[in-house]
Amino acid sequence: MKNNLPVTDKEITVNDDVSILSTTELSSAIKYVNANFVKVSGFSEDELRGQRHDIVRHPDMPQAAFKDLWETLQSGESWLGVVKNRCKNGDYYWVDAYVSPIKEKGKITEYQSVCTKVDKEVVARAEAVYKALNEDKTIAALKKPPVSQRTKLFAGFCLALLPVVVTSLINVPVIYTLLVASVSASLAWGLTTWLTRPLYRSRKMAQQIIGNKDYRLAKYVYGGSLNEFATIELALRVAQAERHAIVAWVDDAATTVFEASINLVTNTEHATGEIDKLYAQTNMIAVAMNELSATSNEIAKNAQTAADATTRANEETQSSWGHC
User: Fold this and answer.
1) pTM of the entire predicted model
2) Where are the alpha helices (DSSP H) in the chain?
3) Which residue, of 44, 217, 294, 305, is most buried by count of CB atoms within 10 Å of its CB?
4) 18-32, 85-99, 281-295: segment of lowest average pLDDT
């Protein structure tokens, strides 16, 4: 793994309205970065193009996170996660990264990434989890199977009913005690199932959005647990990230087209100005030619007048000689 050094303790804050865009080859070589990527990372566009995307990888990022990223992308699914990146000068910035495989005719041709500002609460949780992963420490919350909300609610009902059942069954035969306890438990379970039906329906829809993958790390980093609510929250974040990615890429394309049109207008205006200059110069030449022609005519006329005068003078002279 690439270990980019040195690093500093200075954080660069990504603003709410900033989208950091990039596209990479399947080999992770950078094909395109937008102006925000250049501004936040501190690298120039020339320094980034053709380089592997891990040029901005921060040493604090655990290998497990990127392993999960590449496994997800190569399976043809999009990946959402919290990433700490390193700037050229060693500073760092946290982002919410949404990376998608782009397909043509069913084959993945490139990867697109959209990074945005991430909540401080999520950053704090990610920082603690990534530190533990780098130190090979076991994260209990990620290892133990999650207890469902339905189970928790059922246990709560049973505990609430327990004093009532115990009090009402004092000096009652054991068979009646077991019967009442069974009926009470059945009612509690039925009520729990009925109350949690909307939750499980929402979880099923959420699972369809994020796919069949477990996403344990992402669920815990974003939601602080692995329960149904964490699954739903992750699905909402994925849907939001996907929508934002579409808007960001459309906006970036529109900006590119706008800048190209401005350049075209500028070049056209420049060309028009040059044509106007050429036209003005042509007119000046035409005027000069006219003046030259007029001058030539005047010179010819004067020359003819002089010639006529000379002829008359000669005639007069000859006439004078004839009288002598």
Assistant:
1) 0.72
2) 35-41, 45-48, 63-74, 120-134, 140-143, 149-168, 174-210, 216-223, 228-323
3) 217
4) 281-295
